[in-house]
Design goal:
- With 552 residues, the chain is mainly alpha-helical.
- It has a domain of 385 residues.
- It is built from 18 helices and 10 strands.
- It has a 3-stranded antiparallel sheet with strand order 1-3-2. A 3-stranded mixed sheet has the order 4-8-7.
- A hairpin with a 3-residue loop joins strand 7 and strand 8.
- The protein is globular and about 75 Å long.
- It starts with a strand and ends in an 11-residue tail after the last helix.
């Protein structure tokens, strides 16, 4: 997220990446970089800090989750069974595992949210450079295919012996949702101009507008991305054709109308995980065993060092819906002979749409740094209040009546989420429940507020975060192979019988546990990854705008 020149001292910074410096901004701190969106770097630019710092934090948290799987540190869930919808849980994981897994829940929502933000920034920056919709569409398609190809290569190399055609730990979900969000961004751009023109016509007919209103800009200082793009649009060959600009009033109405539609889409796409759940997210009061929809965590099956075929029993597979396997892939975790998918694309797209909405608001007007901090904190507080509502009012959960821990059995008359701290913060990830959305995004917004408040000089001194945040896909690929390799000697020297017997016969009972060798190996991996990411970031900055290397 950069601009093409260094702003004057004290100037309000911009959020867009790869843009000439517009007059509107969002108040995020920035740092100098040396990249431009055209060919190779020729001028100094600025890069927004807060989103990169957030990404740079959630990446090592993600690596903790995967390192724990490779080295057998703990069972993969806050309850020992799993974190799947409509599953009866009878035992919590031990404290270190519960806390670690709860914290790492921030990662996937953060990735999808930041990706949704990125499509808005990308669209605006490339529109400034004269890219037409066709060229942007090709970019979205190529990037989605590139993510899919990377996923398949990793599946064939790291997960050899599983005999699956497709293993979707997260990249396939990101690829599909990136494409869908990018196309949605183009649709919103086109309809926003059309609706503004239609509103102008209605205002003129109603006597509340004037015929020359279409020639007035939205804001004197340049206004929103929509306003700028309505003054001129790419005709597909790199030139810009003048187009009528709707009145400021019409543009404002159209802008907020589209934001309202995106907010409604966010609501629908997170709550349909509840509406489409085979059990409605409830467990039967008469069930004594885990429900038929119970399943093993996909990450555990995919990244465990031994093939599940060598274990005592095969893990249970989730049942198919009445709509068939093709429908299931989009909305449910899937595990069959050919496909293992833990991140159904349409179950996670709400985070991307929410990111689109957030980016549009941030690019709409001037934001001082203090206003950005207050805005992020405010959104975080609202989301936290909604999460508390899911606990108290029993809405937006996929685990109603499913917690059968000792504390629930001791107090069957009480709200299952309010009998213990672990129960209160338990959230369903497969697929993500609205409660999962509210809790994880409230914390992500609190972190955005924190990183927005940190002076740039201090922020860039935080070890590793900028290196990780600027090369996210490279980090993802590299950390998988690195911890896979580090786990070999770690298990050879330090593997032992785990004290907690797994509740499922198909899970391993040996590993490092939450021991000092595990934590040391994980931290050592981050020290190795940091200079690798920094070097790759420099290499990426020297590539052209269309280079596939920039996708990493």
């Amino acid at each position: 997220m950069s601009t093409s020149s260094t702003p004057a001292p004290g100037a309000v910074q911009v959020t867009n990446f790869a843009l000439p410096p517009p007059t509107a901004s969002n108040g995020y701190g920035t740092i100098p970089t040396h990249e431009t969106p055209t060919t190779k770097p020729t001028s100094t630019s600025t890069r927004v800090l807060a989103p990169d710092l957030l990404r740079g934090l959630i990446l090592p948290l993600m690596s903790l989750d995967h390192a724990a799987l490779f080295m057998g540190a703990w069972l993969h869930g806050t309850p020992e069974q799993s974190e799947s919808a409509g599953t009866i849980f009878t035992r919590w994981n031990f404290n270190a595992a519960y806390i670690s897994r709860t914290v790492t829940h921030l990662c996937a929502p953060g990735f999808f949210f930041l990706m949704g933000m990125g499509t808005v920034y990308f669209h605006r920056s490339r529109a400034k450079l004269g890219w037409g919709r066709g060229r942007m569409t090709r970019h979205f398609v190529v990037r989605a295919l590139a993510l899919t190809a990377v996923n398949e290569v990793m599946g064939l190399t790291l997960m050899w012996g599983r005999h699956f055609w497709l293993i979707n730990i997260v990249l396939i979900g990101l690829a599909v949702d990136y494409l869908l969000t990018g196309l949605l961004c183009l649709v919103v751009d086109g309809t926003e101009r059309s609706v503004a023109g239609a509103i102008d016509g209605m205002l003129v007919k109603a006597g509340k507008g004037s015929d020359d209103a279409a020639r007035r800009p939205l804001l004197a200082n340049g206004g929103s991305a929509a306003a700028e793009e309505q003054r001129g649009h790419s005709n597909g060959n790199g030139t810009t054709a003048a187009t009528p600009v709707a009145s400021a009033r019409a543009q404002t109405l159209s802008f907020w109308l589209h934001n309202f539609v995106l907010a409604v889409l966010t609501y629908i796409t997170i709550f349909w995980n509840v509406w489409l759940s085979p059990s409605g997210g409830h467990c039967s009061a008469t069930s004594a065993q885990p429900s038929s929809f119970s399943q093993s965590p996909i990450e555990l099956l995919a990244l465990a060092p031994s093939s599940v075929s060598t274990m005592a029993e095969q893990p249970p597979s989730p049942p198919g819906s009445r709509f068939g396997p093709w429908f299931d892939f989009w909305f449910y975790s899937v595990q069959n002979k050919r496909v293992m998918s833990g991140f159904p694309p349409l179950a996670w797209i709400s985070f991307c749409i929410f990111g689109m909405l957030y980016a549009r608001v941030m690019l709409y007007k001037r934001w001082t740094p203090r206003a950005v901090v207050a805005w992020n904190l405010g959104v975080g507080v609202v989301l936290a209040a909604l999460f508390v509502g899911t606990r108290v009012l029993h809405f937006g959960n996929l685990s109603e009546g499913c917690l059968r821990m000792p504390e629930q059995l001791a107090h069957p008359e009480r709200n299952q989420y309010l009998v213990s701290i672990k129960s209160f913060f338990y959230i369903t990830k497969y697929p993500p429940s609205p409660a999962f959305f509210f809790l994880t995004m409230s914390v992500n917004f609190a972190l955005l507020a924190l990183f927005s408040a940190i002076p740039p000089a201090v922020a860039t001194a935080i070890p590793g975060l900028m290196n990780f945040g600027g090369s996210a896909l490279f980090f993802y690929v590299a950390h998988m192979y690195l911890y896979f390799l580090l786990a070999i000697p770690a298990r050879y020297f330090f593997e032992h019988d785990l004290p907690d017997t797994p509740p499922n016969a198909w899970e391993r009972t040996k590993g490092l546990g939450a021991s000092a060798p595990f934590w040391i190996t994980w931290i050592a991996g981050l020290f190795i990854l940091s200079p690798m990411c920094r070097a790759y970031g420099r290499f990426k900055a020297a590539q052209s705008a269309d280079s596939l290397w920039r996708f990493f």
